[in-house]
Amino acid sequence: MRKIYSLLIVIFLFTTGCGGQSLRQEIEEKTEEGKMRVGFSQMENNSPWRIAETNSIKSEAEKRGIELIFMDAEGDVEKQINDIKYLIDQKVDYIILAPKLYEEFGEALRLAKEAKIPLILLDRKAKGEPGEDYLTLIASDFIWQGQQAANILVEAANEEAYIVELTGTEGSSAAIDRAKGFREIIDQYENMTIIASESAEFNRADGKRVMESIIRYREKKITAVYAHNDEMAIGAIQALKAAGMHPGQDVVIVSIDGEKDALKAIIANELYASIECNPFMGPVTFDVIERHQKGEEIAPHIVSEDRIYTIENAIRYVDSAY
Ligand code: AHR
User: Fold this and answer.
1) Per-residue confidence at 131, pLDDT binned at 50, 70, 90?
2) pTM of this prediction?
3) N or C: which end of the chain has fewer CB within 10 A?
4) Sequence-separated (6 or more) residues with CB below 8 Å from residue 97
5) Is 281 in the pocket of ligand 1 (CB under 6 A)?
6) How far is the C-alpha of 145 from the C-alpha of 320, rounded, in Å?
7) pLDDT value at position 218?
8) pLDDT of residue 34
9) Which of 229, 231, 274, 322 to mutate to test the pocket of ligand 1 (most atoms within 8 A of CB)?
10) Is 306 in the pocket of ligand 1 (CB under 6 A)?
């Protein structure tokens, strides 16, 4: 609405024949006034994947001349809810929300809806109906990622493995769906056994710590690791090596994301494969906003295209990875 208003003023000023320096200044002021303002609530910004996602949103906003108000919840769900309330108070035109957990954002979605601010869920789901409680979800298909990880592991382990699963943050849609998709495949194989499943919070230090404790208390030999993201897989590799094991030889490891260190680990034959979770969602997010402004229909879930990284292609992508 503000944009149309600005445009009408510009047309009026030109058609009424006003000219000179003061006209240009007036136009610039009005255009600045009409600049779209978008709020971005990021759950945390402390890993290669999150930083890549944040930078993608920031640089795309800048490219399009959109003012971005960035809020980092630093991993704290309460703060993230308050961040959304702040963005609502700021009367931004759109809210982009990367929610840490699935269940906890009902009130925040309701408040944004009451304030008539369209809200886009980014990279993870939050409970609610697309088109009703929020505009759309732009994210990878986490179930598919879990299924791919399982298929790869089944093949690499010859249908027989004792698997340690390092899960992501409990209650996050990424952890819920990656566990679900994995089991949908693994459960079809009698000799593919999950011997331990523990959260390592999607981070490297916890991946190492949790893996160390599983190694210490294991009852069965560990022959495979499925990590819900690369950071935890790299932590697990460090723990396995410190315990005298040989990741890539006596333990097959598969994870998700496709970050630079994971591609390096594939090249070093320590990580078997990584299923991509593309963090570069800035362009598609702002395309959605522009299309929505024009009144176009927006699909309820816009799925990112993800590839699979293995020894076959890791070298090709490692330099450009984040
Ligand atoms: O929601 C996407 C996941 O969140 C990424 O796989 C992970 O690295 C991040 O923490």
Assistant:
1) very high
2) 0.90
3) N
4) 41, 84, 105, 108, 119, 120, 121, 122, 126, 134
5) no
6) 22
7) 85
8) 76
9) 229
10) no
E strand intervals along 181-298:
192-199, 224-227, 252-257, 273-276
Q: Is the CB of 100 under 6 A from ligand 1?
A: no
Distance CA 103, CA 112 (A): 16
What mean pLDDT, rounded, does the chain reach? Answer: 92
Same domain, 195 and 112: no
User: Domain of 105: which CATH number?
Assistant: 3.40.50.2300
Mean pLDDT, to the nearest integer, of 14-39? Answer: 53
Same-domain pairing of 122 and 153: no
**Do 151 and 271 sit in the same domain of this protein?**
yes
Count structural domains, the chain. 2
* Ligand 1 contacts CB of residue 120 (under 6 A): no
Strand bridging mode 192-199 / 224-227: unpaired
Q: Which residues form the domain of 260?
A: 142-277
Does residue 240 share a domain with residue 286? no
Answer whether 234 contacts ligand 1 (Cβ < 6 A).
Answer: no
Q: Ligand 1, residue 174: give the atom nearest the CA.
A: 1
Q: Are residues 160 and 256 in the same domain?
A: yes
Q: Which atom of ligand 1 is nearest to the CA of 203?
A: 10
When mean pLDDT is compared across 24-28, 61-65, 288-292, the lowest value belongs to 24-28
**Average pLDDT estimate for 309-315:** 98
